[in-house]
Amino acid sequence: MRITNKEKLKMVLGHINEGKSLSHINEINNYKDVSKLKYWINLYKQHGRQTFIDRSAGAYKRDTKLLAINRVKNGETIRSVSVDLGLIEPGILSDWIQKYDKEGEQAIQDTYPRKSYLSKDERYKANIDKKLEEENIRLKAEIEYLKVLEEDDENAEAHFQLGELYALAGDTTRARAEWRRAVRIDPAHGPARSRLN
């Protein structure tokens, strides 16, 4: 079962702020791994809530990784080194060690953060937000081209670009009308002519 970082933080705060036992937190969250919950609590105590929220902190330079691997090779536990680094999961360091053991030091490279795992509802909302953002950008561009055409209706390039925007929105009828206007104004307008073929 995958748990979002928000859910991890909620479980940690349930223990720290509300005094709930680890077994009670696991039971109400239908989670079974007490050792990971203990790890997240230690992580929170050392780094605070930011580790659970800010994924930009997940950028790790090669030197940092090699130092962490060396610390484990010299006897420190994976969990203690992982907490020191602020890794959201100790398995991240385990992966680095495994790669080091298999492929050698040259295989260890800089890494950059991935987006946190999103729940189904969060993914849905992010998808909607992205579509609305794209639509908003498209509409702003459409308004700008319409302003240009209001001042100069004989601007072939503005008609062509407006047609491109309409095509992006799936309105091929309006797109083709704008491309025809562009060709009527400038018969040598190659991109508009190719769109009409």
Give a structural overview.
It is a single chain. The chain is mainly alpha-helical. The protein folds into three domains: 1-53; 56-117; 120-196, Tetratricopeptide repeat domain (Serine Threonine Protein Phosphatase 5, Tetratricopeptide repeat, Alpha Horseshoe). The chain is 70% helix and 0% strand. It contains eleven helices and no strands. The protein has helices at 5-16, 22-28, 34-47, 50-53, 62-73, 78-85, 90-103, 120-151, 156-168, 172-185, 190-196. The model has no long low-confidence stretch (mean pLDDT 89).
Strand-helix topology:
Blueprint (H helix, E strand, L loop, with lengths): L4 H12 L5 H7 L5 H14 L2 H4 L8 H12 L4 H8 L4 H14 L16 H32 L4 H13 L3 H14 L4 H7 L1
Helix pairs in contact: 1-3, 6-7, 8-9, 9-10, 10-11
| Low-pLDDT residue spans | none
The CATH superfamily of the largest domain is known as Tetratricopeptide repeat domain
Shape: elongated
- Specify the helix fraction band: 55-70%
Share of residues in strands: under 5%
What is the mean pLDDT?
89
Number of strands: 0
What's the main sheet like?
none
Features:
11 helices, 3 domains, elongated, 197 residues, mainly alpha, Serine Threonine Protein Phosphatase 5, Tetratricopeptide repeat, single chain
Give a quick rundown of the structure.
With 197 residues, this protein is an all-alpha fold. 70% of the residues lie in helices and 0% in strands.
